[in-house]
Every structure is written in C-alpha cells, then in structure tokens.
Recover the amino acids of this structure.
C-alpha cells in the first residue's frame, strides 16, 4: 500500500496517514495520505504570503524553466500518473492516459505563455488637458491564490490552476479532492524538484470542514474553485474581498439537425455522454434531434450504447467504469427510476451493479424530472425531438446551467444564430459540448460559474493591470 505526504511550503510532510484513498472499482484501500489540519493550512497560507515578492521577482524565463521541467517529468512518469488516475478515480485506463496527455499539454501551453505577458502603450492625449501625457500598462501577479480542485479530472483541473499561477508568478495553496488526491501530490512531488521560492506552493488534502481558511483567509487574493454549484456559490458568499473564479456544473445539450451525418453524430454523442462514465460537467445529458432524423438517430444511438463495455477500469476494453462512489450511483439510478415512473422510457441500460451504472438512454421524460433539470454527472442521457430550430435553441437555454452546447448542423446561418442566441460559455459546431482543448477560454454562465479557464485567460484572472502615466512638461 502506498503512503503519501502532503506538501507544505514546497516540502513533503507526513505527520499522519489519516486519509484513506480507495480503489474505486474494488473498494479496497489502495493508499494512505497525510491529512492537513487547520493549523497546517494556516502555516501554508503564511508561507504563501511570504513567497509573494520572491515569486513576482522571478524572471519569465525562470518560470518557464519550472513549467518545462514539469512537462519533462510528467512525460517520464506518464504510466504512473495514468495508473494513479485509474485506481483513485475509477477512470478507464484509456481515459486516464488521455488526461495525462492533457496535463502535459496544459503545462506546455503555460510554459509558452509565461514569456508572453503583454501590456500596451496608450496615447492619452485625447483632449487639450492631456497634452504631454503618455501612458502604458502591464499585468502584475495578483498575489497568493487559493485553489480547490474536484475529483473527476484530478490531474488536469488541478493543472489549470497550478500552471497559470506559476506562469504569472503567483504562489498558491491547493486543496485536492479528498477522494482523488494522488495526482495532485505527484504534481507536488515534481514541483518540489524545482527552484521555486520557499512557500511558493502547498498541496494539502484536508477535510471539507477543516478547509475554511482556503475560502475566508484575507491573505489570499484569489479563490479558484471547480466543483458543484451548491458548494461554489456558498464559497463565493463567504470569501470576502478576494477575486473569485468558479467552474461549476452543467446539463449540457446537443442539437442534431436534419442535415447532420448521423453516423458521425452517433459516434461523438456516445463519447460525449458516456466517456469516463459520464462524470464530466460538459458531458452530453440532453440530446435534441430534428423530428425527421429522430427515429434513425435513436436506433443508431441505442445500438452503439449497448456495445459499450462496463467493468474494471484497468481493462483496456472498458468504457464504463465505476462512478466515484456507490452513493452517487444510487442517486443517479434513483433519478432514472423516477423518470421512468413519471412516464419516461428507458431505451437501454438503467441497471446498477454497485458503483457501476449502465450507460443509459431515455426518451419521453417529463421536463420537470431531475434527469432533465439537474446535473446528472453520470452515464445517462435523455432524447427529445424538435421541428423548429429556434425552438430547439430555446430548449437548450431552458436550464439554470450554461456551460457549453453542441450542434450538428451544416447550415452557416443556423450556426451564427446559435452563437448569438445560446446562453452558454461555449458553442461547439459539428461536435459534442464535451469537447475542450486546453488553451481555449472555458467556463460558463448562470449557475455554471463565473470567469474562464484556459491558460491565457486564467493568467488574466491571476493578474491585475498596473497603469503608468508619464507627464512631459510643455
């Protein structure tokens, strides 16, 4: 059984092994991790604050060297990182390898952007009173940052906070999800090999009850949280004056119009709805198909979904692994049963074995059911049909969430209409809303959050504009 320290002010520390991390498929304890208490968190924040100036003084090429070191070491430890994801998150091994690839991409992009911090020279002579004045502005690090990352992408969603912070010169404290801390601790182990100033980072698994300082401490200047809407909005209400970035949930919709290539759409929809067992905030949850292609799409989708293999995530052929806990599988299974009791039709799947829920498709589900209105966060999608494209757009918008939407259409004007109309953070044409690459601006509106990730955009959130005005006497 593996034993892992936490990282306090750049250094490993193992005062206890109080956190048990289970293999999500077998349920067995696979690792024990040091758990931070409030006193340790306070020490970490103090060290983080003291590292503010040394981090800001690092030259861009020095920050880039740290990030490039991480890229090299992640590449060397690729299989170890994928294996850790597979057991701690229950993520099928092919999905695990994909996430490690994205981790490497994210740090590589940050290394490239770290030497591109731009400003602007401005002409201030806009009226007679400004004659002889010129100005310019630059971005400076915002200061100590607080990061809270989730269980479903424990490597890459931590990376989307850590990498831009290093790129701009912000020290940070990170709380990884208690169910999946190993990936973040491996990142910490690699960061500890670098020349970052003392206190530049701490990675501290801790209980939710003991993590209050991550939110409330005024020494921290930014809080970046990825997780559930209920928790995220509560944290925002309690965080005081600090800047807040929230990446929250969704119940993403995908429209399939009458001109779509159905075989292509089915291949992408099956991926979007069921990859990593549906535990993605941009996973396809609502499939809205034109009435003229609905029956054929449904037939093809059901056939393809039935082919998916569920089971041990270490098996190369497994597509559906366990959900993060059996409790979550029970919850979502209950939503499926409630939808069926309300008149919905289960087209395939719908059965549960422990923490594994079969890939499930439903139709004719009343619009007020949880499976339509809330975030499923599991391998379930609901089909419905439309005749009028604008009505389909309205159906996508009929949600408290607004993260991303997908549209299979070849009509340029419908694409433009969707981009203008949909109240979401991103519109994906010709693919599912589940698609993301790590340099694009990513985030949502409404209950899906505030702010944007994607390295360049996270760097903007982690910096402030500092203006300079120069007067030349006339």
């Amino acid at each position: 059984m593996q034993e892992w320290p936490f990282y306090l002010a750049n250094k490993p520390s193992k005062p206890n092994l109080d956190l048990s991390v289970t293999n999500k498929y077998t349920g067995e304890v696979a690792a024990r991790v040091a758990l931070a208490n409030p006193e340790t968190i306070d020490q970490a924040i103090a060290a983080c604050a003291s590292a503010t100036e040394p981090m800001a003084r690092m030259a861009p090429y020095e920050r880039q060297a740290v990030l490039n070191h991480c890229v090299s070491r992640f590449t060397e430890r690729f299989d170890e990182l994928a294996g850790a994801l597979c057991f701690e998150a229950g993520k099928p091994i092919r999905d695990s390898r994909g996430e490690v690839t994205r981790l490497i991409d994210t740090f590589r992009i940050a290394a490239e952007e770290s030497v591109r911090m731009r400003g602007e020279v401005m002409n201030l002579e806009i009226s007679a009173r400004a004659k002889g004045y010129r100005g310019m502005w630059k971005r400076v690090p915002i200061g100590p940052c607080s990061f809270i990352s989730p269980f479903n992408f424990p490597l890459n969603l931590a990376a989307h906070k850590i990498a831009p912070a290093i790129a701009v010169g912000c020290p940070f404290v990170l709380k990884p999800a208690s169910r999946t801390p190993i990936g973040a601790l491996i990142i910490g182990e690699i960061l500890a090999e670098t020349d970052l100033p003392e206190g530049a980072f701490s990675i501290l698994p801790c209980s939710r009850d003991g993590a209050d300082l991550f939110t409330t401490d005024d020494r921290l200047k930014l809080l970046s949280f990825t997780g559930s809407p209920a928790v995220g909005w509560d944290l925002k209400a309690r965080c005081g004056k600090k800047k807040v970035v929230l990446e929250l949930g969704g119940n993403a919709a995908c429209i399939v119009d009458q001109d779509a290539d159905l075989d292509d759409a089915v291949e992408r929809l099956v991926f979007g709805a069921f990859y990593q067992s549906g535990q993605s905030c941009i996973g396809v949850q609502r499939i809205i198909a034109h009435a003229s292609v609905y029956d054929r799409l449904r037939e093809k989708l059901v056939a393809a979904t039935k082919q998916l293999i569920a089971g041990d995530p270490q098996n190369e052929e497994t597509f559906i692994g366990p959900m993060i806990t059996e409790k979550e599988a029970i919850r979502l299974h209950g939503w499926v049963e409630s939808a069926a009791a309300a008149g919905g039709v289960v087209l395939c799947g719908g059965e549960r074995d422990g923490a594994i829920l079969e890939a499930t498709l439903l139709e004719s589900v009343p619009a007020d059911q949880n499976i339509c209105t809330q975030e499923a966060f599991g391998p379930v999608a609901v089909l419905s049909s439309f005749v009028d494209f604008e009505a389909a757009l309205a159906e996508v918008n009929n949600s408290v969430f607004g993260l991303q939407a997908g549209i299979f259409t070849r009509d340029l004007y419908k694409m433009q209409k969707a981009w203008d109309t949909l109240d979401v953070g991103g519109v994906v044409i010709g693919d599912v809303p589940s698609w993301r690459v790590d340099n694009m601006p990513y985030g949502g509106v409404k209950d899906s959050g505030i702010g944007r990730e994607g390295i360049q955009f996270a760097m903007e959130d982690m910096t402030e504009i500092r203006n300079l005005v120069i007067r030349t006497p006339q």
